[in-house]
Amino acid sequence: MVKKICGIGAGYVGGPTMAVIALKCPSIEVAVVDISHPRISAWNSDKLPIYEPGLEQIIQQCRGKNLLFSTDVEKHVFEADIIFVNVNTPTKTGGRGAGKAADLTYWESAARMIADVSRSNKIVVEKSTVPVRTAEVIEKILVHNSNGKVEYQILSNPEFLSEGTSIQDLLNPDRVLIGGNDSLKGQEAIQKLKAIYANWVPEDRIITTNVWSAELSKLADNAFLAQRISSINAMSALCESTVSGKKVAVLGFSFKKDTSDTRKTPAIDVCKGLLGDNACLSIYDPRVSEEQIRRDLSMNEIPWDNSVMVEAMRFDGTKQVSVYEDVYEATKNAHGICVLTEWDEFKEIDYQRVFDSMEKPAFVFDGRNVLDVHKLREIGFIVYSIGKPLKQWQSY
Prior knowledge:
UDP-glucose 6-dehydrogenase; 396 residues; UDP-glucose 6-dehydrogenase activity; UDP-Glc/GDP-Man_DH_dimer
C-alpha cells in the first residue's frame, strides 16, 4: 500500500501534479521537494511561484494536511514509496547532439541521489520529457549505485499538460499513460500507480503499456505541439525602420495566457531583438512579475529547473526596460505596441484611449492574432498582424 509520495522538482509540472494527487488521495502524504529555498518558500507562502487557474485553491485546501513543500530532499526520498521525478530536461547546448538532443544531466543527478539515500524498494516515475529508452539508463544508474540492496521499478508516466489549463488537465485528463516493465514486479508497480489515478480518473482513460512506448508517445505529442509560427520572424516589418530611442509597449510576456510561465516564451527573443536595436521597452503582463521579466531579459538561456545555477547568477536588469502594472501607463507615449501573449483582457482595452496617448504614427504588431484589425485601422493605427494583408497605403 502506498503511504508516501515524493515529487522531485517544484516547477510547472511537479507542483500542480503533486497538488492534485494530494487533493484526490487524502490518505497519502505527498511531499514536493526542491533544492531551491526561494522556490519552496514561495510554495509555502500566500504568493505561489507560478500561476495556474485553480491551483491556489487546491494548495490552500491541502497544504499543511497531506501536502508539504520542503528542501529536505533526501529525507522525503528516503521515506517515499513512489518518487516522481519532475526535473527539467532542456535541449543540449554543447557537444554531440547540441540543439537537438535532451540534456539528462539533472535526471541522472536525481537518480544518483535516489540511489544514495534509499534503503527500501522504490517505484521511480518519469514525468519529465525524455528520449526513448531513458528508463533503461536510469535503471542502470540506480542499480549500480545502490549495490544491489534496493530494488527499483521504473515507470514512465508522461504529462500531457497545457499551461493555463494544467489543473483542469490533471483533474479531467483525456488519458493517463503508464508504461512499465513486463516483469511481474513491473506489472505490480503499474497497478500501484494506476490505483492512485483511479481515485478520480475513469479506468478506461488509464492506459498501460511498456516503458519505451510511453516515452515515445510523449515525444510524438510534443512534435505536434512544436509546429507553430515564430513571432520574431514577423517582427521584421516593424523593425525595417530604426527603433533606436523609440518606445515600444510590449503587452504580454508569458508563454501563453492564463499562466505565469516564461520558459521558451517568444517575448524574450522579441524583446532582446528590440533592445539590441536600442529601443526602449515598456512591458505589461497581468501575471508575470517584474523580477521575472528582468531576469529573463538579463540572462542567457539556462535550464530553469537548475535552481543552483539560477541562484548563483546575478542580474542587474536592463536600463532600457520599464515594467508597468497598468496597460494604459505602459502604452502612454509609445511609438508602437507588440501583443506577444493572447491574454483575454487585451481584447477589451480602450484602444481609442491608447491611440490618443501614443506618438504618431502609432503602430500595432499583433503577434497572436487576437485583435480586431479592422477596428484598429479605423481608429488610425498602422497594424501588422500575422497572416493578414497590409493596406497599400501603409508604406512607412
